[in-house]
Amino acid sequence: MDGMPSLSVRRQIDEVGAVDKVGVEARVTVFTTRSIKKNAKLWGLKTAVSMVDLTTLEGQDTAGKIAQLCAKALTPHPPDPAVPSVAAVCVYPALVAEAKRHVAGSPVKVASVATAFPSGQAPLRTRLGEVRAAVADGADEIDMVINRNAFLSGRLGEVRDEIAAVLEACGESRLKALLETGELVGYDQIRAASFLAMRAGLRPGDFIKTSTGKTNNNANLANTQVMLEAIRDYYLETGIAIGMKPAGGIRTAKLALHFLVAVKETLGDAWLNNTRYRFGASALLNDLLRQIEKERTGMYQAGYMFSEATSGY
Predict the structure, then answer these.
(1) What is the pLDDT of residues 167-180, one digit of tens each?
(2) What does residue 80 show for φ and ψ, rounded to 5 degrees?
(3) Cα angle at 128 between 123 and 132, to 5 degrees?
């Protein structure tokens, strides 16, 4: 807990391999230098829209706010029908049924944070009950937070068993295992936690995720790259394709395109779709729409031209 990994975490790091910090940071710097122009840029912007989990996780969320969120998710930019719907709306469990009512029959999924988001500090039976309730109300996807206290204390079997129990509670619903990378000390622990989550039984189509968006250190290119490389190595080892979801702090189209470059160059085109890659964001969507309009018309649109769905991360 003081910055030094426990003995069991150290063993996990030794087993999955340590991270070359200098190499990772040099590589992600290169991703930001890639030039994406014209049709390729427009494709990237629309693809990023299709990958957004449009999120509201505020105490003042209401049925009316969820209706607004879902309308934005279904038709992000009414003047341009070529802009796709987003991947999912992400809400608290108590609002799953409301969200499901608005997106029923559409490709937009309903995701719900669960397991005592964002802290994860609740008894396991409570966390599992929350998952089951969200699934019963129609959640297609569950974003769980791993037990960071157990991980940092070296109780890795406990973390693994809890993820497995949440998977069972999910049934057919997709699981996104959230590491909260800002609370893990360094890239080695992020890689170790990524492997621990994947080996707990994540299925093809399940995800690992960076952050809750509720801490000061959310998704960035470097911690996401460590997780992408873990997914790549796990896929080469097992043939199981796990998805990736960076979340929190991704607010501009320019940054989103850097993230897509990282995906393409690390995992390849098979991950450039919303069944294997998501952005946990809300503020990002409108900047993507502004950039799409710029590519389409040659002019930037004012921010007020786009509806605000929510004030989520």
Answers:
(1) 999 999 999 999 99
(2) -130, 95
(3) 150
- The residue with tokens 């992400």 is 90
pLDDT given for residue 311 in this prediction: 46
Look up tokens 């497995």; give the residue.
Answer: 164
The phi-psi region of residue 48 (left if phi > 0; otherwise alpha if psi is between -120 and 50; otherwise beta) is: alpha
| Closest CA relative to residue 305, chosen from 296, 279, 227 | 296
For residue 33, the model assigns a pLDDT of 96
**Residue 116, phi-psi category: left (phi > 0), alpha (psi -120 to 50), beta (remainder):** left
CA distances 170 to 5, 53, 131, Å, are: 31, 19, 7
**Does the pTM of the predicted model rise above 0.85?**
yes
Contacts of 131 (CB under 8 A, 6+ apart): 114, 115, 142, 144, 166, 169, 170
Reported as a single tens digit per residue, the pLDDT across 202-250 is 999 999 999 998 877 889 999 999 999 999 999 999 999 999 999 999 9
Would you kindly state where each structural domain of the chain is located, as residue ranges? 14-305
Q: Compute the distance between CA of residue 278 and CA of residue 302 in angstroms, rounded to an integer.
A: 26
List, by residue number, the catalytic residues. Answer: 143, 209, 245
Identify how many contiguous H helices and E strands the chain contains and give both numbers.
12, 8
pLDDT digits (tens, 9 = 90+) for 261-271: 999 999 999 99
Cis upstream peptide for 123 (omega within 30°): no
- Please tell me the total number of residues recorded for the chain in this structure: 313
CATH number of 14-305: 3.20.20.70
99: left (phi over 0), alpha (psi -120 to 50) or beta: alpha
